[in-house]
Design a protein that fits this description.
About 30% of the residues lie in helices and about 25% in strands. It is an alpha/beta fold and about 260 residues long. It has one domain (about 60-260). The strands form 2 sheets. Strands 2, 3, 4, 8 and 9 form a 5-stranded mixed β-sheet that branches. The chain has a 4-stranded mixed β-sheet with strand order 1-6-7-5, with no helix packed on it. The longest helix has 27 residues, at about 90-120. The chain is elongated, with a radius of gyration of 31 Å. The N and C termini lie far apart (about 100 Å).
Amino acid sequence: MGYKYKATMYYSDDETDKFLRDKAAKPNGKKSASHYLYSLVTRERENAASVELNQEEVGVVRIYPEYTSSRRIEVSGLISFIALPAFSLESKATQKRLDHKSLMKEIDEKIYQHISSNFNNPSYDESFLVVIKTYVTCYYNSNVSETGNCEGNFLANCTLIHVTRSEWARWWGKYDFENIQYIKFRDLSKSRVRKNMGLCQLAEIVPLETVGAFFIPVRTTAKAFPSDKFPFPLLKGVDITFNKDRVRLKPMNDTQKKRHFG
């Protein structure tokens, strides 16, 4: 069979000649230096194609299996927060936003208190606790009392992750538990998300909202277990900017006021 292309290799040292003859030997005892050289070229082409493929994958988000090593809790109770008088604000929208910020701050404090009372501080064994607020509901009395406070009741669904050294090592030191974030599914292709290169979704039981989810960023390189001390707990999750399927902060209606205040 004739070949369309041909290349000639020139060399002068004996060691190269011996090496090529040994490598060119076939199982049937025959030798073909050209076949051996062609196999080297083919291998180099495959390596080059693999490098090009890896370069094309830069910016691709890798989705890892759901993270299920977590615990779910509910925190609920009465709440009281300071609300500014309406006449001191420029608009009702501004008043509502500031009231909701104060409200969420108090809810965070209630969560801190609940965790501190019911879970041991893990810092003694060089571990840390991450708490992710996944859903928050609160109905409050929008009428400011004489003390300047608004009152209501709340319910917060939270996911707890206890990150020990063994849990850190289990995921090769690449799971960025300190920076868990909410991402909308439609944003997964955007550059600000792609920089993470990997995402692991937190498992949720029958999520009420399907627009997005909470993800653990997955680094491309390992990181040592953090030696610095985190707050107890490290609180992440929803805030007042989330949609009503994640955060529902509403003034009480008359029936709710009667049930709550009598």
